[in-house]
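Hi R.,

Here's the chain you asked about this morning:
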Amino acid sequence: MFTSPTPEAAAAASARLRADGYLPLHGLLSTGVLAVLQEEARRLEKIARRRDFSMECMGGSPRHMTTLGGHVIARESQLIPDLYAARNLLDLVGSYTGERVTTVPDPLERHVLNVLQREGDTHGAHTDDYPYALVLFLEAPESPADGGLLEYAPRAASLDALDAGAARTAHHRAGDAYLLRSDTTAHRVTPLTRPRVRRTVLNFAYTTSTATLTRTQSASALYG
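And the predicted structure, written out as C-alpha cells:
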C-alpha cells in the first residue's frame, strides 16, 4: 500500500523533518485508499462528539471541532487500526524520521478522527504527548483562503512562538498527508472562514523506544 522512498530521498526527507519539524507528503493516499477511508470516516462521524471549549493546559487555546478518540475507533472499525499498525506504514514513517517508530500504548491517542465542519471551527495551539504525528487528509478546503491551514513553529519553547513571528503555514488537499515532530513543534489549525467547508483528518501518533514523554490532559479532554 505504501512504498518506502529510496535511501537518498529518505535522507533528504529526514533532514527536512529535523530542520523544520514538518514534512509534507503530497498525494500519499491513492485514489482508491482515499475513497475507502472517506467512507469509513463518514460512518464513524455519526458517533463522533462535538467539542467547543478552551484547552486550559494549552494556554486556553480554542477547540471547535468534532472528534472521535482512538478507543472508540478501535471498537467500531477494523480498517483504521489495521492501517495504523501496518508494517509498511511503520516502515515508511521510520524511513522519514530516521528512527524505529512504534505504535503508542495509549488507546485513546493512537488514531483519532478530527473534523472541522462549521465556519470558525479550529484546532487551537498545542503540542502532542508523543514525538511523531502522521496526519492523513480525507477532506480539505480547496483554497488556502478557506482556512483549515496548518500553522507550526518548530523547536518552540512555548505555544507563544506561533504568535511571535515564528509560525509557518501549509495548505493540504484530500489525499495529502504530513509528518510532524509534534512534541516539540507548536502547531494549530486556522479557523474555517466560510460555511460548507470541511477538513477531515486521521491523526496517527507514533513513538520511539527512546522518547521522553511529557503527558498532559489535552488528549483526554478532547477525545475522552
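The chain has six helices and twelve strands.

Let me know if you need anything else.
M.
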